DNA sequence: CAGCATCCGCAAGGATACTG
DNA sequence: CAGTATCCTTGCGGATGCTG
């Protein structure tokens, strides 16, 4: 998307109205196919890199690392590397990240209801 | 992503465990940057095409139409075209779509909290 | 084990012009 | 007004090989 700093529209009285949008804020942080799934797995507790990878067999290593970094930069999780051989790296949700459980849980509940309504199977991660 | 029908991992007892994931189900329906934002705008009631467009100045027409179609195919909204000139088309959430308000509201609430925590402005749609 | 570097194909998405 | 159609670019994301 072309980066636009400001954007405007008009209300019925032809006054300029900035369209503010909390959902856009969320999508900028956890948008994309994989991020909510990563968060979903970390909600049950800190996990090692290999554990997350095993839990998400469909994601490539490149994408997993990339998204973990972005989530770290956005302060949703922290990365802790123990200085041992072989490496031992764990990822843990921050307070911000943990609070996303309300979003993830709402997603899960809706999913179960909708899958039942449409009589479909739950997909693999 | 390469399409893989089945995928497996193992638990501590070396039993095969399928990783099922409700979040993946949700992301398959409302993943991508724009869909949750479209839903957000429709939660306040049915809207004409032009109203949605005006509310989302950053999305291109092509993307908007494309995502509206996909949401319609996924039974999250319905499209109703009045046979008049000029055309009058309204988009309305289905029952499934309306039930996503729990997800969208959880997103919004988290956004407000996180924006306050990080002292940032609310972005434009 | 937990990554990083590089190459590269392809599809998502932008820009533009046209229409019932 | 509410879209289609077409072209074209960008960058997502896969594949592969290497490393502290």
What does the model show?
The structure is a homodimer of 125-residue chains. The radius of gyration of chain A is 18 Å and the shape is globular. Chain A has six helices and five strands, in the order E-E-H-H-E-H-H-E-E-H-H. Chain A has a domain of 87 residues: Arc Repressor Mutant, subunit A, CATH 1.10.10. Chain A has 125 residues and is α+β, with helices and mostly antiparallel strands. At the A-B interface, helix 1, helix 2 and helix 6 of A face helix 1, helix 2 and helix 6 of B. Chain A binds a DNA duplex (20 and 20 nucleotides) through helix 3 and helix 4. Chains A, B: Pfam families: HxlR (PF01638). Chains A, B: It comes from Dyadobacter linearis. Chains A, B: This is HTH hxlR-type domain-containing protein. Chains A, B: Keywords: DNA-binding, Transcription, Transcription regulation.
List the chains of the largest interface with their residue counts: A-B, 53 and 54 residues
Assembly status: homodimer
- By CATH, the superfamily of one domain in chain A comes out as Winged helix-like DNA-binding domain superfamily/Winged helix DNA-binding domain
| Strand elements of chain A, count | 5
CATH class descriptor of one domain in chain A: Mainly Alpha
The coarse overall form of chain A would be: globular
CATH topology of one domain in chain A: Arc Repressor Mutant, subunit A
Give the C-alpha Rg of chain A. 18 Å
Order of helices and strands of chain A: EEHHEHHEEHH
Main beta sheet of chain A, described?
Answer: 3 strands, antiparallel
| Uncertain stretches of chain A | 1-10, 12-16
Helical stretch tally of chain A: 6
Instruction: Quickly give the structural class of chain A.
Output: alpha+beta
Keywords (chains A, B): DNA-binding, Transcription, Transcription regulation
Protein name (chains A, B): HTH hxlR-type domain-containing protein
Pfam family, one (chains A, B): HxlR
Organism (chains A, B): Dyadobacter linearis
């Amino acid at each position: 998307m072309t980066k636009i700093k400001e954007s405007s529209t008009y209300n019925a009285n032809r006054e300029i109205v900035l369209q503010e949008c909390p959902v856009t804020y969320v999508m900028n942080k956890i948008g994309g196919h994989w991020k909510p799934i990563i968060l979903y797995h970390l909600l049950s507790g800190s996990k090692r890199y290999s554990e997350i990878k095993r839990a998400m067999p469909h994601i490539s290593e490149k994408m997993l690392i990339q998204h973990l970094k972005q989530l770290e930069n956005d302060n949703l999780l922290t990365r802790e590397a123990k200085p041992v051989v072989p490496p031992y790296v764990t990822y843990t949700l921050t307070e911000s990240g943990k609070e996303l459980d309300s979003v993830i849980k709402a997603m899960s509940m809706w999913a179960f209801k909708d899958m039942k309504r449409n009589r479909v199977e739950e997909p693999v991660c």
